[in-house]
């Protein structure tokens, strides 16, 4: 299981706290990624109308028999990184999970993009990942994931989690973060600009975008100037809102379109 990035929660009090903090109601459709031994799944199915669970490791199947038998649990054997979340029916309204460390960031990002009906996430992640998602401009951990998820919702750390509550015990600290959706996820143009802007962190924003999307240099520089921003600024100094504004002003890849 360590190979697949899963560490099982062994503290029932923490499991109860995760469900309580999530604020689920009897109308919610929950998405859980990483079933583990099914202990969180059981608690979620006691509260929510429906629970979709995505698990990669078929070796866990014998221990999940009771969970699979629950009428409101849909257990899907799949790789969450490659899974089409938009295919889930009914569509999730919340995500609650002890996320495998190795897939936490891409899974959170993709669910934000593909599942507009999710109103909030309450997920256990490596503390470093949580810090990155809620980082502000000008900090070392601020990057494309920070910008894109903060354009989707408000991110806060609910609680720190000791590594001693896991089995096997990981070498890193964990945290429970909550994301409350405040609007639609960034569109494709914004995602493209943000990722290109951080592709070469040591270079100016415009130059980084141009290296990632050749032919964009003039358009990005002119957009920065039109927005009253130093054209030599680095991506790490721009706020999420500034990125969104710039994306609406330019179309990376052409030098004459703004």
Write the layout of secondary structure elements.
Layout: E1 8-9, H1 12-22, E2 29-33, H2 39-47, E3 50-55, H3 65-68, E4 73-77, E5 94-98, H4 104-114, E6 120-126, H5 127-133, H6 144-152, E7 153-161, E8 166-167, E9 174-181, H7 188-197, H8 205-212, H9 217-226, H10 240-247
Parallel strand pairs: 2-3, 2-5, 3-4, 5-6
Antiparallel strand pairs: 1-8, 6-9, 7-9
Helix pairs in contact: 4-6, 6-10, 7-8, 7-10, 8-9
What can you tell me about this protein's structure?
The chain is of the alpha/beta class and 258 residues long. It has two domains: 2-181, Rossmann fold; 188-247, Helicase, Ruva Protein, domain 3 (Orthogonal Bundle). The protein is built from ten helices and nine strands. The chain has a seven-stranded mixed sheet, sandwiched between helices. A two-stranded antiparallel sheet has the order 1-8. The longest helix is centred in the first third of the chain and has 11 residues, at 12-22. It starts with 7 loop residues before the first strand and ends in an 11-residue tail after the last helix.
